[in-house]
Amino acid sequence: MMSGKSTQEPYPEAATDRSRGADAPDSAPGSADTADVVLELADASKEFGAETAVNELSLSVREGELLTLLGPSGCGKTTTLRLIAGLETPTAGTITLDDERVADDTHSVDPEDRDVGIVFQDFALFPHMTVEENIAFGLTDADGDRTDERVAELLELVGLESFGERTPDQLSGGQQQRVALARALAPEPDLLLLDEPFSNLDVRLRVRMREEVRRILEAAGVTAVSVTHDQEEALSISDRVAVLNDGRLEQVGRPEVVFEQPESRFVAAFLGRAGFLSGSVDEAGVHTGIGSFETARMQGLTDDYAGTDIDVLVRPDDLRANPVADEDAGNGRVVHRQYTGSSFVYRVELDTGDVIHCEHNHTTDIHLDQRVAVSFVADHRLAWYPAE
Amino acid sequence: MSTLGDGRIDIDRGTVLKGGLLALAGAIALAVVAPIAWLVVRAFDMGIESALALLSSPSTVQITVNSALLVAAVTAGSVLLGVPLAVLTARTDLPFRRFWTVLLALPLVVPSYIGAFAFVSAFGPRGTLADLLAPLGVESIPTIYGLQGTVLVLTLFVYPYVFLTTRAALLSFDASQIEAARTLNHSYLGAFRRIVLPQIAPGIAAGALLVGLYTLSDFGTPSIMHYDVFTRMIFVEYNAFGRGRAALLSVLLLGLTVAILGIESRLSADDGNAYAGGRRGYTISLGAWKWPALAFCTLVVALCLLVPLGVLAMWLFRGGPGYSAGGFAFEWSYGLNSVVVAALAALVATVAALPVGYLSARTDGPLTDLFDRMTYLGYAAPGVVVGFALVYFGVRYLPGLYQTLPLLIFGYVVRFIPQAVGTTQSSVLQVDRSLLEAARTLGHSPLASFRRVTLPLIAPGVVAGAALVFLTTMKELPATLLLHPSGFKTLVTYIWQVQDAGYYGAAAVPALVLVAVSGLSMLVILTQEGDDVR
What we know:
Chain B: It is found in: Cell inner membrane; Cell membrane. The complex is a heterodimer of chains A (388) and B (534). With 388 residues, chain A is an alpha+beta fold. Chain A has helices at residues 4-7, 27-30, 77-85, 131-136, 144-157, 173-185, 203-220, 231-237, 255-260, 265-270, and strands at residues 37-48, 51-62, 66-70, 92-97, 100-103, 116-119, 191-195, 223-228, 240-245, 248-253, 275-282, 285-288, 291-293, 309-314, 319-323, 332-339, 343-350, 355-361, 371-376, 384-386. The longest helix of chain A is centred in the middle third of the chain and has 18 residues, at 203-220. Chain B has helices at 15-45, 48-56, 58-91, 97-105, 112-123, 128-133, 147-171, 175-183, 188-217, 220-224, 230-239, 243-269, 290-318, 332-362, 366-375, 377-380, 383-397, 405-430, 433-441, 446-475, 478-483, 491-501, 508-533. Chains A and B meet through strand 6 of A and helix 19 and helix 20 of B.
């Protein structure tokens, strides 16, 4: 059961020495590499008729971490969640929860017999029960006093001490979510699943609830798997992110690693705005439309690639476009400008034909058709892909 | 492995549980369908030659023509009444529109046989009008019996179907389309004809088909009005022990019903082009036409509501010894009998509807769909056909049950179980699937989840369904007449008996009770629909 530990991490040595985000204090995830595996999927697949929703997915989640399944809609992330909960049965592969095989191709443990809690996308609070009754619903073994105690504990944890007597329709969206969280946490599940937890909240509440949910999960010390299509949400709350596409796992790793060193063009394009510079490799380095880079700047590029063409991943905040007066100077031309309030994003068509975006401060005003010299302003290593 | 295979895991643990539920639903559906199916088989059994002879006999042809005439006339009359009234109440500045809308829909709550009974007792040979005119030397008045009386009464009590469907179509109509037509050089009338009418036509047609179906299957009115149509003749043949003929007429009537249902389902299938959005609501100013419009509404309301209710009230107060003569005195125990059988029918129908309604809401397999549809057969079939099929079937296979309460109640269940299936199904559909999944992940078995989450949430809908079955059973005429044990009197059999003997006055109390019961059932339907919208 523990064999997945080393094989599931495709980028074991890729961790950079940058500090973790503010959302991920050192204590919880710092031990992630050595903590026990709580959940392990091995080649799990799910087919609906001719359609393959999840395709040979292998993944493991360690105790105390929050892993987010991220991908566009229809990528199989919600189905994966339902497989873990026991609400769907895999057509192939195995699922192991806390060292117990809960599903393979011949049997499947019922959801009520797995120690898994879910926060549903629409919260799924029981409308005919009060908040307290909702939270107590999963406490099937405890006696009355113990149940009351636990319900009070959870109400305090989610900050709804005075709302116990209300019914779900008397609560705001954020409060409903807290109740859903409390209800799922009440039976102390081995694993908590969150299905698009913030999608039913309005934008401002969403950001606040992210922090709040993160706080509650940490206070409860629970291992969690969440699902979202919102990359900002995934990157900001997760200890690790697993990017799914078309039922397959594209990449899994710490948010900054996945963001900065995407292993595929799909991941690069899905996380943030990606641009690609076509470049040719020789012994001197990589030559692109905005200048040359040393081979060492490229993540994992070796001299073996000399003489070939590659595409270098660049993001808008890595690039600056400086206006040039002379029509013959510079390396491109502004073809589109978008004002977002906090910044200007200029689309530049380089003389080589590549189209890239440059993000500027909102006070920098470059007009359309202006000749510019685009330069690279960041100092991190760059991801690249063999030319298509 | 999931046996559902469609990703909607519901009762995963109990493949057995689900299989059992499916078998149960199948058995219930079969029981509901069996008598009618058997009737059809028997009718074909009588041999093609004798069947053909019967079919082409002058009397059968006459019955068919009569039925067709009645359906055509009532449908046309309902459209002529219903559409103008709908336009007046939905789209003009008629004073007190809400008041008129309610009053004009209200005739639907008067069971048509009570309406017929009231009209006969008012305008019939021994009725009120004749009594009033006799001292004046008027010997005879135009007869209320026959085609004209049947058409008049049925039209007055079923036109609200057209009124309501047309109103709904008019109300969902987008005002900006009219404005567009006006700016494109059309007069208001031109716009109405070219823009509004084509788009509300499906609504009118839907109402007209309901009217047609109702007219074809109505037993009470033509019987009271002595007009020979299928329903009346099936009953007559049955009483004259002409069972083969009754069976054949039943099958013929079923065939016609199915044909109308077929048209209806096709019509409602392409109902989906309703173009919503934009501004709703536009109002035609009536001007001086307001007065004729008010007079029209008043006349309709007077005929549909004031006449029957007035006549019944009059009998109630006139009472007198003359009306309770002949051993026809009304006893409240008849009412109690009605309540008891209706309550039992409601109970049985509700319990039997649970597995069928639950399955059809929660799974979509060909089998569950089939079972769901099968339970609707008794509802679509005319009551007299259901009653006759059960008698026929009962005499042959269940002689011990013939003319007993269990068979009567079974007949009611066959007839009205769809009301319970429908309400159960729609309440189950309103229980979000994720609620059950939440209950499962919180450690509850499928059965416990059903008990603690689904059942409390569907309870109001299930109770409403039971109430509906109860109320419609109370007023069911043909099945009661055919299946009631001899000597067992209910409100309905009593009304039938006294109107047959001409002791109209005696029926006032039970008739008013049935109007009230009918009104209550309408209220239940309306509150149910309100729930659905919410």
